[in-house]
Specification:
The chain is of the alpha/beta class. The protein has one domain (5-10, 41-92, 116-300): UDP-N-acetylmuramoyl-L-alanine:D-glutamate ligase (3-Layer(aba) Sandwich). The protein has helices at residues 42-52, 67-78, 121-126, 128-132, 145-157, 187-194, 201-213, 252-265, 270-284, 297-300; strands at 5-9, 13-20, 34-40, 56-64, 86-89, 95-102, 107-112, 136-139, 161-164, 182-183, 218-222, 228-232, 236-239. It binds alpha-D-ribofuranose.
Length: 304
């Protein structure tokens, strides 16, 4: 079978995850119930999800010349991800994310970018051939904005489907929007970027128009327990979430995007890609961690 090719430019973090009954309030000390380390980072998570489904995935990233960096390279290889464009720097530590997960499955995350912030636009130029050979090019905002923008410019110039997850949200230059075939924020990122309240599907639909006016091809807003909303000039589609008991929502959005990218690269229609992405992310929240919770193609039982 021909494997869909996906190229991801983004972060690789070691996730330091503490489980708690509830979040502490400022100034309070509480006892946690467990501590684990997991491989994470939005870019790497999306790459691993696409690879677990069977995609041929190339990752453009940077890790430190340290223990976490060495372990991370092994982790990428264990999923068959192509690491030719992953650099190692002695000047920065591998990125980390300090994550707290409540009993409800809800999380809060602080990322220290480290080596991720040493990814340069010139390194995206060096990867032009591999970006152009992909069926989908995926990026986020845990590496420098100018590097992400260069990646999108290269992909767009090569007619590769571009999928941009503007997370964590930050103000964006107007030029970046027309580079996005699929612009994919969650509710809070949408609120931050538009200044609009986004608590309902109707509010998300209204906010999506702002992004369309700025020139993106289509908007996909992930809405947590409300599923996902797709809005383009000619089509609006709300895919409800599946009802499952969440254990840990960390990386659920990344599982959604990695799956969406896999099916777009595979030539599926948008509706199939969206429904399958909602399904994979619903499976992912039922286990701890990000990549460790992602299902394989067979485990997803797509179409059932
Ligand atoms: O989206 C989840 C990810 O955000 C975590 O794996 C963490 O590393 C942060 O990047």
């Amino acid at each position: 079978m021909k494997q869909p090719k996906i190229c991801v430019a983004g972060s690789a973090n070691m996730d330091l995850v503490t489980s708690v009954k509830r979040m502490p309030i400022p100034g309070e000390t509480i006892l946690g119930t467990a501590f684990h380390t997991f491989f994470g980072g939005k870019g790497a998570n999306q790459a691993v999800m696409a690879a677990k489904l069977g995609g041929e995935v190339t990752m453009l990233a940077k890790v430190g010349k340290d223990v976490f960096g060495k372990q991370y390279l092994e982790n990428f290889k264990s999923y068959g991800i192509i690491t030719d464009h992953i650099g190692q720097t002695a000047e920065h530590a591998t990125g980390i994310a300090a994550i707290t997960v409540e009993e409800s499955g809800q999380n809060s995350i602080i990322v220290v970018g480290g080596a991720n912030m040493a990814n340069t636009p010139a390194e995206m130029d060096d990867a032009k051939a591999v970006i152009h050979s992909a069926g989908a090019a995926v990026c986020q905002l845990e590496i420098p904005l100018e590097t992400t923008q260069r990646f999108l410019e290269i992909a767009k110039a090569g007619n590769v489907a571009t999928i941009f997850n503007p997370a964590p949200a930050q103000p964006l230059p107007d030029e970046i929007y027309p580079l996005c075939d699929y612009f994919c924020p969650n509710e809070s990122e949408t609120a931050l970027l538009t200044g609009m309240q986004v608590k309902t599907v109707a509010e998300a639909e209204k906010a999506a128009q702002t992004f369309l006016e700025k020139g993106v091809g289509a908007v996909i807003i992930t809405l947590g327990s409300d599923g996902a909303l797709y809005v383009s000039k000619n089509k609006t589609l709300h895919v409800p979430a599946l009802k499952v008991k969440a254990v840990d929502t960390t990386g659920a959005g990344d599982s959604f995007l990695g799956t969406f990218a896999y099916f777009i690269a595979d030539g599926s229609d948008v509706e199939t890609a969206l429904r399958n992405a909602v399904k994979a992310s619903a499976i992912s929240v039922q286990k701890a961690g990000a990549q460790t919770s992602y299902p394989t193609y067979e485990e997803c039982n797509f179409g059932s």
